Amino acid sequence: MIGLFTDFGILGPYLGQVRIVLQQQAPNIPVVNLMADAPRFSPHASAHLLAALGQHLPPGTVVFAVVDPGVGSSDREPVIVCADDRWYVGPGNGLFDVVMGRSLTAALWRITWRPPSLSATFHGRDLFAPVVAKLARVENPRGEEFLGQRWDEAVVTKDPGDLEEIIYIDHYGNAMTGICGTKFRRGHVQLPNGDLISAAQTFSDVDMGDAFWYVNSLGLIEIAVNQGCAAELFKLDVGVPIKFI
To answer: Cα(103)–Cα(51) distance, rounded to whole angstroms?
Structure first.
């Protein structure tokens, strides 16, 4: 299958244009929207979400991953990544660092192919989507055979560790952090105003209106309020720093 991970949002023309290319060039491959509201303009925060989502994908999945504030510039290379038999295509701006750093096996290629027509501001449609389609159509692909050049000299960060900040606010106002919950079962989350939030396993373990942190379904620490809005209550937004103590 093909998975889409972007900060495009579900409104507007962008996802639709990408899906048209995928439908034309890989018509028999199912396309699943993993996330369309990744942290805007923040490859660093998005990298932690992508790694958390990626661990649940079956081997052979090809992920179109685009959070690309530097699109059209020379500040980043377009890349193909293979990590634990899952393929990722997108900008080499740090978006794949966590995926690669936490994988047992990882390889990286520059995308050297260019389409006949390439928009300066929409590499997602013109460059990354065709590469994703080509990878998805072939069983057991190799990156160098699919429009790329092995990038052995690139420095791949080892497990970059946790990101102690809010990286995503969901529909309910729950605030997801970049901290892997598998490392913690006790302790408190400290907010910038000094508030300390205790742990619970699930929503029903606390009274209605009470705040708590828990390990969410992606394995990340998340701040929530039982039948309330943690983001509103604590004035949380993407990028707000937190501490685990």
So the answer is: 9
Q: Give the CATH number, domain containing residue 8.
A: 3.40.50.10790
Position 91 pLDDT exceeds 80: yes
Residue 215's SS3 state is strand
What is the average pLDDT across 179-184?
Answer: 84
Model-wide pTM > 0.90: yes
Residues 169 and 146 in one domain: no
Q: Which domain holds residue 209?
A: 163-244
User: Based on the domain organization, do 116 and 54 belong to the same domain?
Assistant: yes
Compute and round to an integer the Cα radius of gyration of the chain: 19
**Does 145 lie in the same domain as 87?**
yes
E strand map for 93-226: 106-111, 148-150, 163-169, 175-180, 189-190, 196-197, 211-215, 220-225
**Higher-confidence residue: 29 or 149?**
29
Instruction: Reply yes or no on whether the pLDDT at 143 is more than 60.
Output: no
